[in-house]
Every structure is written in C-alpha cells, then in structure tokens.
Specification:
Length: 208
C-alpha cells in the first residue's frame, strides 16, 4: 500500500466539499543523437512553465525540475494491479508545441526513461498541495507523430511501458559456455561441458 504525504492526503480528503484540481507531470530522459548524452524534458498539465520539486522515481529523493506547460498534455489512466502484467500508459500532447517537436525530432527517445508524477493544486491559492508523488516509472515503447490533414487535429502519442515489469520479462542473450563462465573469477564449472554429453555412465551394472 502506498503511503501518501500529509499534504496530498489532506487535499484528497477535502475534495468532496472543496473540490479538487489534479495535475500530472511527465519527465522524459532522452539522448542527444550526436553524442548519446542524456537530456531531460518535463511536461505538465498546467498552462504555464513551472519549476517544481518532485520525488525522484529513481532515487526516492526530492529533485528540482522544470516542466513545460500549455502542450495539451493528456495521460491515460494508470492501472494499479497486483500481478506481473506489463502496464502501458499513453502520453499525448500537441505535436506543434516547440518542446514536443524538440523531444521527438531533435532527440532520440527510443527506450527513454519516463517518470509520471501526480499532485493536486490548492483550490484557493492554486499552489501545489505538496511535492508531486511518483505514479508510474517506465520507458518509451513507441512515439508515432500523427500528421493531420488540413483542418484536423494532430497529436504526438508516446506509449510507455512499466520499467520494472519489463525488466523481469527480459531474457539473457548470453549462452552458457566454459569460456563465458571462466570470466567470472576463473569459474571452471563448464570445463568438460563440450564432451560430457557423449559420456556413457553405467548405472546398475558393471561397465564393459
């Protein structure tokens, strides 16, 4: 069970009488195509650019980040499940936003790490109720750019899959071999693995 901080919990508890103003934050760490260096861009569902301190999904520590607003950001519902099903979350935004264009056309977002945070705004002051809480940690699984016809709307759609569950489902491409095992501190467990399959082991009778 997730433990919410007191500010977020109080805002949710007061929503029945006072209303609620939810906000979603998306932070994507891509790569510079020329060098492979990591570069991060944040987006949120607000109407202006802001600086916010969020709880990092990697370290669990507060981290100051910048988020770009007014990009028509929409994030699909995040399912809370108790099994090992790989969850997919869809992140959509306007494809004409400068920051969105920079993300998909300037940077390489293949397998980019994605952190999604959630928080509410105080109904009266419109300030964050608390530091945004991590809601989903994943990686980009696809980012098609839909170019619309004249007079129609276009969207940038990013598919994000669960990072932890996806790692559990990955297979190790390394094959078992004597040479491969020997690299681990001189392990010679597989010294005779290439010939042992041809050995004839007598069982229950005297060998001829």
């Amino acid at each position: 069970m997730k433990n919410l901080n007191s500010g977020f919990s109080a805002a949710l508890g007061a929503a029945r009488n006072g209303g609620i103003v939810p906000r979603v934050f998306v932070f994507i760490t891509a790569k510079v195509r020329a060098t492979g260096a990591p570069v991060s861009i944040g987006f949120w569902t607000g109407d202006e650019d802001i600086n916010a301190t969020v709880i990092s999904g990697i370290t669990g520590l507060p981290e100051a980040r910048s988020y770009v607003g007014a990009v028509n950001l929409a994030v699909s519902a995040i399912s809370r499940v108790s099994d090992l099903t790989t969850q997919t979350v869809t992140v959509e935004m306007s494809q004409i936003a400068d920051a969105a264009q920079q993300l998909v056309r300037t940077y390489d977002i293949r397998l980019a790490k994605v952190e999604i945070h959630e928080m509410t705004l105080d109904v009266a002051s419109r300030q964050l109720s608390s530091n945004p809480e991590i809601a989903f940690l994943g990686q980009v699984d696809g980012a098609p750019v839909e170019t619309p016809m004249v007079g129609q709307d276009g969207r940038l759609t990013i598919s994000v899959i669960s990072d932890a569950i996806n790692m559990l489902e990955r297979t190790n491409p390394r094959k078992s071999s004597y040479e491969g095992q020997k690299r681990r501190g001189g392990d010679e467990w597989g010294l005779y693995s290439s010939t042992i399959a041809t050995w004839q082991i007598p069982w229950g009778q005297k060998a001829s």
